[in-house]
TrEMBL record:
Keyword DNA-binding: yes
PANTHER family: HTH-TYPE TRANSCRIPTIONAL REGULATOR PKSA (PTHR30055:SF226), HTH-TYPE TRANSCRIPTIONAL REGULATOR RUTR (PTHR30055)
Signal peptide limits: none
Organism: Actinoplanes xinjiangensis
UniProt protein name: TetR family transcriptional regulator
């Protein structure tokens, strides 16, 4: 039933309906990109799965490539926001890294389709992935500095964090490709041990007491 100003339908505004349609498109895309090769997924497939017309698809996305880029970007943002929130405001290196790695493994295990879109089934996002490695390294570096203190060699610190992020990414890819066969808790423990081992050797000047 139309409501005030013909803007309401079934109790929802036009903006709410548009947002809901976009959410359905993104959810359908995550499922399809996670379960098929990119080249096998068409705009028509996405629209059919989302139960929207192509007109609504093109209201939000330019084409299939634009959809993939936005979906990949949004899934990464979802994951990174959770990882940043997982770290305590202060603590030792192990106290900071442990909840982050636990959250990473748990979220990917609980959302396998999102995991595949982020790490595996988006081959055309390889250049984007390289950029994300650097973004993730900056976020992790900021988290690590919650231990207090300043790196003696900033460039060494940045390279160590980037190497850690790249290594963790490869281990995650291997885990996802093996259908999460290893328990998330075991993987998180290994990632924590690796991270602490790598970063403990980077000299940091403690903050004055």
């Amino acid at each position: 039933m139309a409501g005030r100003g013909r803007e309401l339908y079934a109790g929802r505004s036009r903006e709410q309906r548009e947002a809901e349609r976009r959410d359905r498109i993104v959810a359908a895309a995550v499922h399809l990109f996670a379960t098929r090769d990119y080249d096998e997924v068409t705009v028509a497939d996405v629209c059919a799965a989302a139960k929207v017309s192509k007109r609504y698809f093109y209201h939000h996305f330019t084409d299939r490539a634009d959809l993939l880029f936005r979906v990949h970007t949004e899934q990464n943002a979802w994951l990174l926001a959770a990882l940043v929130a997982a770290g305590p405001p202060r603590g030792s290196l192990e106290e900071l890294v442990t909840p982050v790695m636990a959250t990473l493994a748990r979220m990917l295990r609980d959302h396998p389709e999102r995991a595949r879109v982020i790490y595996i089934n988006a081959p055309r996002m390889e250049v984007r992935r390289r950029g994300l490695l650097h973004e993730e390294a900056v976020l992790l570096g900021d988290l690590i500095l919650r231990t207090g203190g300043t790196p003696v060699d900033q460039r060494l610190f940045e390279r160590a964090v980037l190497a850690l992020v790249a290594g963790v990414t490869e281990l995650i890819i291997e885990w996802v490709m093996q259908d999460f066969a290893e328990p998330a808790e075991e993987l998180a423990g290994h990632l924590t041990t690796i991270a602490v081992s790598m970063l403990a050797g980077v000299p940091v000047v403690p903050e004055p007491a």
